[in-house]
Design goal:
Elements (H helix, E strand, L loop, with lengths): L2 H16 L1 H9 L8 H8 L3 H13 L3 E6 L2 E6 L2 H14 L12 H5 L1 E3 L2 E3 H13 L3 E3 L9 E3 L1 H8 L5 H4 L8 E4 L6 E4 H13 L3 E3 L6 E3 L1 H11 L12 H11 L1
Antiparallel strand pairs: 1-2, 3-4, 5-6, 7-8, 9-10
């Protein structure tokens, strides 16, 4: 692809994201759940016919993928890189503030999904601990496209969580890379390893995902076991909010 084609492609994707209703649709899908056009129309506050036109543009731009099951049609993000790009754009969107102060609602600030991996304060804490413990290192020049590499001790650490790094390397996806966290402005762990880590935490019920938002709840058992496994003191989340307040904050955040 030459420079002109590349410029046109970037402009096309940027134009597809730029419309506020389409942005709301994309952000709603960052929790990794697939949704129908009717659900996305409600989220974007547009009619079903208008939503269909928006979804068509997003699909043509490669930002969405359509999944058909019988008579039902569901939309999801086209690639984990879309979620990563949206997180980065959220950071840029906050850059005009003279001094950075997180304004993300507490539950989303502490732990949330970034498509299929862990984001928020907890995600950044675990990312930093993986480096402090020597389980992850920055990839050296000449290595594959992965920004991070897993050390031998890291392979054993992840195996203790039921994650086989060798299997992840066979996937058609980057193994481990930084994903800039929009609420923290620091990286959390992305790539196949980041997705596998979140799955492991959810399967053990150390984290519980909301059904209607990107928020993740750290359980009492999860707090104890994550602290023990990672060898770190967690910054605990704020006291849970009431259901009505959570719904209001969810509508503002998404």
């Amino acid at each position: 692809m030459n420079a002109v084609q590349n410029d046109q492609r970037v402009s096309s994707v940027a134009a597809a994201i730029a419309e506020p209703a389409r942005t709301r649709m994309l952000c709603a899908l960052m929790d990794g759940h697939a949704r129908t056009s009717t659900e996305l129309a409600t989220i974007a506050e547009v009619s079903t016919s208008t939503a269909s036109a928006h979804l068509s543009k997003l699909k043509d731009a490669g930002l969405l993928r359509l999944q058909v099951q019988g008579r039902h049609r569901y939309y999801c993000l086209g690639d984990p890189l879309v979620a990563q790009a949206l997180e980065a754009l959220m950071v840029i969107g906050q850059a005009s503030a003279p001094t950075f102060t997180p304004r993300t609602p507490d539950r989303l600030q502490f732990a949330r999904t970034c498509y299929d991996h862990l984001a928020g304060t907890l995600g950044v804490q675990l990312h930093d601990r993986l480096f402090e413990a020597g389980w992850l290192l920055a990839a050296e020049d000449g290595e594959q496209g992965d920004a991070y590499r897993v050390t031998d001790s890291g392979v054993e650490f992840f195996r203790g969580l039921g994650i086989e790094v060798a299997q992840l390397k066979t996937l058609r996806r980057r193994l481990a890379c930084p994903c800039l966290d929009w609420s923290m402005r620091r990286p959390h762990l992305g790539g196949a390893l980041g997705a596998a880590l979140l799955r492991a935490l959810l399967e053990r019920k150390w984290l519980i995902q909301d059904l209607d938002s990107r928020a993740l709840t750290l359980t009492g058992t999860g707090g104890r076991y994550i602290s023990k496994r990672f060898g770190m003191a967690l910054i605990q989340p704020a006291k849970p909010l009431s259901a009505s307040v959570r719904l209001e904050l969810h509508s503002l955040a998404d």
